[in-house]
Design a protein that fits this description.
Distance between the termini of chain B: 30 Å
Oligomer: heterodimer
Strand content of chain A: 15-25%
Shape of chain A: globular
Number of helices of chain A: 16
Number of strands of chain A: 22
Number of strands of chain B: 0
Radius of gyration of chain A: 25 Å
Radius of gyration of chain B: 26 Å
Largest interface: A-B, 57 and 49 residues
Helix content of chain B: 55-70%
Helix content of chain A: 25-40%
Structural class of chain B: mainly alpha
Order of helices and strands of chain B: HHHHHHHHHHHHH
Largest sheet of chain A: 8 strands, mixed
Strand order of the largest sheet of chain A: 8-9-10-1-11-19-12-21
Amino acid sequence: MKHRTLALLLGLLLVLAACGDDGGEETTTTVTTAPPTTTGGTVRIGWGGAPADLNPGIGVLIEDYTLYELVYNTPISLDLDGNYVPELATDWYVSDDDLVWTMKLAEGVTFHDGTPLTSEDVKFTLELYRDTEDFVFMPSYFDGDEVIEAPDPTTVTITKEVPTGSFEGRMVFMYILPKHIWENEDPATFDNAAMIGSGSFKLTEYRQGEYLRLAANKDYWGGAPIVDEVIFQTFENADARVQALINGDVDMVTEFPATAIPTLEANPNITVATGEPLAPDLTDIIFNVTEPEDCPADDGICTGHPALRDLQVRRALAQAVDKQQLITTLLLGLGTPGRAIVPTGLGVWFNDALEDYAFDLNEANRLLDEAGYLDTDDNGIRECPAAMDCGDRPELRFRLNYPEDSDTAPRLAQTLADWWQQIGVDLQIQVLDSDTLTSVCCPSFDYDVIIWGWGSDPDPGFLLSVLTCEEIPTGTNESGYCNPEYDALYAAQQAETDLDTRVAMVHEMQQILMDDLPYIIPFCALSSQAYRNDRFVGWRDDATKLALEDPTSLDVIRPAG
Amino acid sequence: MRGRGLRAPPPISLMTRGSLFLRKIIWALITIFVVITFNFFLFRVLPGDPAKAGVKDPRLSPQAVAALQQRFGLDKPVLFNTQGGNLFDSQYFRYLGALAQGDLGTSYAYKSRPVTSMLGRALVNTLWLVLPAQILAIVLGVLLGLVAAWRRGTKLDVSALIFALFTWALPTFFLGILLLFVGSRYLGLPTGGRITIGADYASFWATAGDVLRHLLLPTLTFALVLLGEYMLIMRSSVVEVFSEDYILTAKAKGLTTFQIIRRHAFRNAMLPIVTLIALNLGFTVSGAIQVETVFSWPGLGKLTVDAVAQRDYPLLQGAFLMLAVSVVVANLVAELVYLRLDPRVTEV
């Protein structure tokens, strides 16, 4: 099972990393434009995990959020091409002073129990998410300065003291809850078994770890789904999941091993689709660049190799990484080369103009020679220049750690070791369980190089905050990177409400990271899913992002024939 | 012929038996208590903050961490509360107190769920899978072992031996995937799960039939895996008994082979099997981890695997406790059954 945006989100990476070799071949269904001739039917979906919490405040798994998307509405939604589109809010705008956001809500929206959804519910929900300390992610989408008001039943205003540039990005996770139910409960412990929402599907049965049944909300204000029912069934074993699709026990599988792609593609009744994951993520090679003066006073041990604080060394290491080769061998082609900390799947926020470091071992060797790291004792490993104080570690011999629950990291580490050995850098690879890895990582900075991963929100704000100086003592900044210029840009873009200006700032921040190299981002994994094209048609597999379990598909698919 | 002066051993008095019984139970209780304590501390010496274990996100604010810690009682001292107030207001004694009331705490990963009810439901599912498999394996294994020993050295014996060694050595998940593939593709059996979700069956029998269809492959897999051990132990045990003098005597008396097996060999040869059965049943509650995972069977094994993956310490603690208790109880039962079966086991 996987955490949604979890820092240490290798679980997700594993599954995605294990996908496919067709290098982004796009397969599309024959979507006819004629009105549906058949309706109804039960869609069966096989997946590897299962939701753990029906309460949107405390859910952390990807599967939890899949369920919330189906059962609840959010004011604003993110479409599969990465654009913010209206959902409950038909329109939204910010005042001229950038402080007051106004949302106009759709009319005639009702909860599953027939109660109308009004601005009071929105106000109640937003305040609940902001103020419930036990909630896991929700409070992080607020600054605490919001005054939320509901002047009339279809208008919500949010007045802030400090402008925010990520208003839309925050609203896409605000699952609006019915005030008349939640106001009587303790939100931190409420199990929300009835799960009354306003979305296009209603939860009818929930068996922990086994299955979910959802009935179409035939009175859905936004247009009822064509199918009658959706069932999510958990198949923990990936081969069993693939077999279930082949046998027709399920109509779609949300994830499967890449090795199954040839088998699935050979089956005429099965369509395999590839795209960016709904929650983009990246794998990162983290350098410990903590300067002694930045070492956290309380928790810092800061034993990073001094040579890693030399940009010239990091540049040489970056030139000794062949990202395309890694994608081919580790992800069987299902990935895109990463650049700075913003994942490739993040739409406009990703700066695709960044120039990457070319794979060139000779150039890497030249850079190290030039910087004075020479192999003086002829043992194949370079030494620090005489003028540099490398303490009792004169050689370029780095510790490399990665979490035990990662599929790709072992081979990635080995491949890096082979490449870097050719430029006179020795790696001592040690695998650690994720708790131990956290304890050597940050804020203790008791490591040299770590392979880890990040998942991302639709808004780049959080990931960009990772590398600010402020996050060094908190342990969120894993590399110890601190650059005032970067921090200033970070603060500015957080408060920028004009999209284009903010995008430009975010792009500039990526350029800084690309130049300074606290991380090497080898790749961002793509995801692949497969469905039976003889059962239901109309799956949305043609967008940038792929999420067939999302309402964007389940609302519109219809029985085949 | 009974010699003079040779006295038969005195019959074990009820008192001796009773105190032996009592002593064994007390030892079992002590073992369980030690396991409870060990279990409790085991999860607290592991690296990492258990409060954060369920939620590994750096955006978790310090307030949220504090709230979680308070909810799970992790803000209390571990062993003794020396910061004033009640000395026993600590995590350990709170755990013991809750345990005494049958409360195993709340799962970290499934935050609004009591561990007791999660384990209870999974246990029922596991028993549905494991008990039929055990019974099948015991009956077939014992019969096969008996026949193999009886026909020792024949082709039948050799085939049975090879079969038993093969199934015993076969990795469970591999056998499971093979059976899943064959069964679901060629016999139309389901690929996993406990029931056909959303199917509306007219009668109880139709529902039962559906569950049986789902049970067939996992049960068969588990039975095949267990069978080999029973068969091998039974075979060697019977072979040993066959070499005893009283079997020769029985043969000399002119009893048929069937009579010899039924009256003399079977009961004596069953002793090691009883031990094996008791021990295996003890481990029943650990579930058939691999079988459950391959066939998505929502039993204890799958629950434990999920708990490990999510570092759900209260759930793991509960699962470990249940496993420990059942192993101790199974051992106790084995000893008590031995007391009845084998008169040689009288004193400890």
